[in-house]
């Protein structure tokens, strides 16, 4: 092979290394080859939960207001399995499970999908198979969700807009409410004692369940070893049972569950708790379990709007924006500055501005709150660290706290995404590229116009910032002619300034690499090199190598050279190889020879 290649070198031909000093790797001729180359808290069981950039809107638990925040759902690792198109289709979503390894989401078309580990059949797909590819739940397609919660098994409860209650997953304690302890492999409609009732909200503890109806009634069922069903006994409850006693004739407007405790808020702001109380999570001033609902007398005189239950602690938000906390505090989740449990509610964040939202879920020891100005605080167990005082974050949503710092990184509520009425700055810029209605400048390339905005170009590119100075002729023009680059290349360059992305085949990326070099756009240069590397083939390898040398792309040159050497026989049979000039061929042969490419 070497002999046949040498015959193509320019005349006079000298045997490599004969009368001329042989170029070596890193010392090649001036044609460019010139480089060297425990849980300590007492409770029953564990885990579960209650509760591109997307606008998230979540109804307040009392349905009095809506909280709005920007949330990037790809912060939850499981959603990185989805494509950009799939992410854009999501209207509602929830991440759950002992390790945050299960997900359910609903699209704008009303289709329901699940993916993940599928512990205890909690995906509801009819089998026990895990999946990293979303699977559709046909039985729920077209149903609008208003509430979703899950337990530790996990088991899942879901409420539709019509007030129907569906359940599936772990059922060892009858937490599905269907009267059996058989696993729920697919969604089942829960109807016992709920006929003619419109369910509006659900909450799951570890292995028990609560449902709130439109009339303000609370129903409970499932595991009841600590009285968390509120029936007056510790016998498990196989079907939904109305929680009465002191809730009788009360209109309840919100519910929440700890691991083995239950909480409810009345329409007058009173708070009631029942079930396990070993850490004081019921806020009654003692640590005795309660088999029926008891009112939190310590909050008398306050009107509570929102209640949130963690693993073994509780938070309450009043109508004056005051925050109270009580219960377990091993990880500082009460935010009191210490790790001492509190048997009664204590006010926290007293020096902060008005609180408008609180967040906790029964599978974690993490707490979060959002202030009126949009500041988000977190405390408790944060990535394994105990944070004993509320810590100001850079987040804009309490959901981000749970995505990035909770263990497991579950969602504390069902997220609702709205894509239609909001565009980020980046999305707005992308939308306006090549828009003749808003542009104030046109580039003419190969007889075609590209519509742009001077201000954007000046902000994004030093070349244009210099061009649009008063002493440059181009500053006064409405149309600028470009003749040194092709239309696809120049359009891609301008689009890059609006989007930070490039979509070109490798061959065109060579021209864009030339432009990036000319305009000193180093990031664009790296993107082009990346595109070329991904698109290299035997047919175009030598052309790409030549371009890398020509545009001084050192890393790309090394990559292309190694590819050519590794596929030397095939590369030397391509048209691109036989079209290169002799000097470059000579330098390639010298360098390849030193790499041992021609050894038999």
Automatic annotation (TrEMBL):
Q: Which residues form the BTB domain?
A: 439-506
Q: Entry's SMART domains? A: BTB
Q: Which PROSITE patterns match?
A: BTB (PS50097), RCC1_2 (PS00626), RCC1_3 (PS50012)
| Annotated RCC repeat ranges | 110-161, 163-215, 216-268, 269-320, 321-372
Keywords annotated in UniProt = Repeat
Asked if the record carries the keyword Cell division, the reply is no
Top-level lineage group: Eukaryota
Which SUPFAM superfamilies does this UniProt record tie to the protein? POZ domain, RCC1/BLIP-II
Tell me which InterPro entries the record gives: BTB/POZ_dom, RCBTB1_BTB_POZ, RCC1-like_dom, RCC1/BLIP-II, Reg_chr_condens, Signaling_Regulatory_Domain, SKP1/BTB/POZ_sf
Q: What is this protein's name?
A: BTB domain-containing protein
Give the source species.
Onychostoma macrolepis
